[in-house]
Design goal:
The complex is a heterotrimer of chains A (260), B (386) and C (70).
Chain A: E1 7-9, E2 12-14, E3 18-21, H1 28-38, E4 42-49, E5 69-72, H2 80-94, E6 98-101, H3 114-126, E7 130-135, H4 139-148, E8 154-155, H5 169-178, E9 184-186, H6 192-200, E10 205-208, H7 210-213, H8 218-237
Helix pairs in contact in A: 1-8, 2-3, 3-4, 4-5, 6-8
Chain B: H1 2-6, H2 10-16, H3 24-33, H4 36-44, H5 52-58, H6 67-82, E1 85-95, H7 120-132, E2 137-142, H8 151-161, E3 167-171, H9 177-185, E4 188-192, H10 200-206, H11 215-219, H12 221-227, E5 232-235, H13 244-261, E6 266-270, H14 290-303, E7 308-311, H15 317-323, E8 330-332, H16 360-369, E9 373-375
Parallel strand pairs in B: 1-2, 1-8, 1-9, 2-3, 3-4, 4-5, 5-6, 6-7, 7-8
Chain C: E1 2-6, E2 9-13, H1 22-29, E3 36-40, E4 43-45, E5 60-68
Parallel strand pairs in C: 1-5
Antiparallel strand pairs in C: 1-2, 3-4, 3-5
The chains are: A alpha/beta (260), B alpha/beta (386), C mainly beta (70).
Chain lengths: 260, 386, 70
């Protein structure tokens, strides 16, 4: 079996292939425990206007910034300009130049806009950002993003929060086959088995948020996802056999060689 | 930009894997150690995806006992991707003047014979005859005769040929990306160039002189084609110079690299096998058996579902008839490998002997009998003309 | 009286309470500066410059912070 050499994004190596989102948790404690149980090393966060009328507690103070790589996302951006602005703000705040690029003009399904995403990615890469773009599972878009220099591609399995699993399976297979950068399956993974399936297909990592945050016991669910990701990866590396189909016997094609 | 630094070039990839000759002993040993169980495992995997370890198994000596099974899978896969069709093309040789001294080639600068190069008009005369036979896919071939068969000649010829042929490709000495871009603008959409051998030492031995003696320069040609915007990139190794199994591994790595980097181009494999030629010493080479050739074709098809596979008239008729069911997607017919051979200079010296001298009509009939449709025209360059 | 547009909303300050710098503004609003990013008239202001960046009436300020998100 081939050894797992680890997930490498923009030259940085990670042991965990499970990225976790911090949204939708009931409390900072639940969130912190889930992150710990997931064994995650990369944690996504968002940027919002400070609500000056309501001084709610800062949930993020519960995350140890020395231990985890905080990956700001541009959620809420509806076009390239907004996403670029958010990215610059995030960089100013943390000094980190990593950004998960999310451009979602549709507030119902939160599906990413391919054109605005490509536009923003090209500009952000030129400004020195490490860009991880969230996209629909579009193989051509993936190639174009890699051409402009994004560090990964993050195709969705199904719409954010839908928990439907790998609806875009065939397209993701093509993306993985053609990719020159790590492929991180993001959005719609509702069960640990979905995450295992993505890893078995050869995905480099997965990002899970809703399924963990909204579970009855988030920390336990996080652990289940962690194990599923590990299982899927080991299965992939050991070379799972393909489904065998009954072959239709047809007349011999190489009989002519026997006369050699 | 950090991305380009992350993407290794083909020279580094081959060196890292020892497929430029540096790991010959290790690979040969590994090939010999492959077991039948491993072959069965490799054949159980979903076909059409490239993994070096899997190809290694498929071209191993152990896999020779599974050729029929490989053929069945390859046949089905080719059918799915390419349908029941085979593209037909004709080669048009423009010159047999050459500055290189390749030891295996009939056109080597060291051989004495009356050399011919065609003027644009003479080339058009040959092309006229080819078009009358029904061909719309033309391959322009030339030895390294840069002073006369240069970029300007090629672009002039291409623009004159374009109205008659919907697909123009070339098999000529290496050019730069800018030059390929010029050819593309003139209507040439594909280039074929063989590395001949990926083994550096062997390469040095067979290419002692001339511009072709530079291994790295030659290796970069396919990149230049991709950068120049060529839609079709043809690669291959001259089978018989070195160990065909190792050449197949290197060739596959090259194809895989090109497919990822120049994702808008289609990569095709050719299988030029050393055959008798005037003045060339047969005793020096490791000639492949038909079985070896078939195994190589099948192994590559099982790893590359969408790669084109081309077979020329170097190969005998009876073998070509069988190969069309094993993954071949494009073949030549009624070929003349001597410049002017179709019309003006019927007796000029050819690059190699033709072993399938059937006419295009006969080839078409053979294909129909095999349940395949001959495709003369696959694209219309008229759609891209402004 | 001074007016500042903060996060798209107009904030009116009596003359003697007009915040002189971004740091002052944050103090007045009761917002912890350590997790906040500020954008003044479209320009990003780094945290280390909060106490030295002056504010004038009529300016536009965006105060943004990191929050949980997927």
């Amino acid at each position: 079996m081939t050894e797992d050499k680890g997930l490498v994004i923009a030259g940085k190596k990670f042991n965990s292939r499970l990225l976790i989102g911090t949204g939708k948790f009931s409390s900072s404690k639940a969130m912190a425990q889930a992150i710990e149980a997931a064994g995650a090393e990369i944690v996504t966060i968002a940027l919002r206007r400070v609500d000056i009328t309501n001084k709610d507690d800062d949930m993020l103070s519960a995350i140890d910034r020395e231990k985890y790589l905080l990956l700001p996302n541009t959620s809420g951006a509806r076009n390239a300009d907004e996403a670029i602005r958010l990215s610059r703000l995030a960089r100013a705040a943390t000094g980190i130049n990593w950004v998960k690029l999310e451009v979602t003009p549709d507030p119902y399904y939160l599906l990413p806009d391919p054109i605005e995403t490509l536009k923003a990615a090209e500009i952000l890469v030129k400004e020195g950002f490490i860009v991880l773009p969230y996209i629909n599972a579009d193989p051509i878009l993936s190639k174009k993003l890699q051409d402009v220099g994004t560090a990964t591609v993050m195709p969705l399995a199904s719409p954010i929060g839908s928990n439907q699993g790998l609806k875009t399976r065939s397209a993701i297979e093509i993306i993985i086959e053609q990719a020159n950068v790590p492929v991180i399956v993001d959005a719609g993974l509702g069960l640990p088995s979905h995450a295992a399936e993505a890893m078995e297909m050869g995905a480099d990592a997965v990002l899970v948020n809703t399924a963990i945050a909204t579970a009855i016991e988030p920390a336990k669910m996080a652990e289940a996802f962690k194990l599923a990701v590990l299982a899927g990866r080991i299965a992939y590396l050991s070379g799972a056999a393909a489904e065998s189909k009954k072959a239709n016997a047809s007349s011999p094609l190489t009989g002519f060689l026997r006369n050699e | 930009m950090t991305t380009t630094a992350r993407h290794l070039d083909i020279k580094t990839i081959l060196a890292d894997r020892g497929l430029d000759g540096s790991g010959k002993d290790i690979w040969t040993k590994r090939l010999g150690e492959i077991t039948e169980d491993e072959v069965k495992w490799a054949l159980s995997r979903k076909p059409g995806y490239y993994v070096l370890d899997r190809l290694l198994i498929l071209i191993s000596p152990a896999a020779e006992n599974f050729i029929e099974q490989m053929a069945q899978i390859a046949h089905r896969l080719t059918l799915q991707r390419f349908g029941k069709t085979v593209r037909l093309y004709a080669p048009l040789y423009l010159s047999n003047f050459c500055v290189n001294g390749c030891l295996y080639c009939g056109f080597s600068t060291n051989h004495q014979f009356p050399r011919i190069r065609l003027t644009v008009e003479q080339a058009l005369a040959d092309a006229e005859i080819i078009a009358k036979e029904g061909f719309r896919d033309l391959l322009l071939v030339s030895s390294e005769d840069k002073k006369f068969i240069g970029v300007d000649y090629m672009t002039e010829l291409a623009s004159k040929l374009r109205p008659k042929f919907s697909s123009l490709s070339v098999e000529i000495y290496q050019m730069s990306a800018d030059e390929y871009a010029k050819l593309f603008a003139a209507g040439i959409e594909g280039v074929t160039l063989y590395q001949e051998t990926y083994n550096r030492q062997t390469f040095r031995k067979y290419h002692p002189a001339g511009p072709k003696a530079d291994y790295d320069y030659r290796l970069n040609a396919a990149d230049s084609m991709g950068q120049g915007g060529m839609r079709e990139i043809g690669i291959g190794a001259l089978l018989g110079l070195d160990d065909w199994r190792l050449e197949t591994l290197a060739l596959a790595e090259h194809a895989h690299y090109l497919m990822k980097r120049y994702w808008k181009s289609r990569v095709s494999f050719s299988f030029p096998r050393l055959r008798p030629a005037k003045d060339v010493d047969r005793a020096r080479f490791n000639l492949l058996s038909d079985k070896n050739l078939v195994q190589m074709l099948l192994a590559l098809r099982l790893c590359f579902a969408d790669a084109g596979m081309t077979i020329s008239t170097r190969e005998p008729a009876h073998l070509r008839d069988q190969l069309v069911k094993l993954g071949i997607t494009r073949m030549s017919a009624g070929s003349k490998t001597n410049p002017g051979g179709y019309s003006t200079h019927a007796d000029s010296v050819g690059q190699f002997d033709i072993d399938d001298s059937r006419s295009p009509a006969q080839i078409a009939a053979m294909l129909k009998q095999a349940g395949l449709e001959p495709v003369w025209k696959d694209w219309d360059s008229a759609f891209t003309e402004t | 009286m001074g007016l500042l547009k903060v996060n798209g909303k107009e904030q009116i300050f009596p003359d003697n309470k007009m915040p002189a710098t971004i740091a002052d503004l944050l103090r007045q609003l009761g917002v912890d500066s350590t997790t906040v990013v500020a954008e003044l008239e479209g320009q990003i202001i780094e945290r280390k410059n909060f106490s030295t960046t002056p504010l004038h009436a009529g300016q536009n300020i965006e105060l943004v912070r990191f929050v949980p998100g997927g």
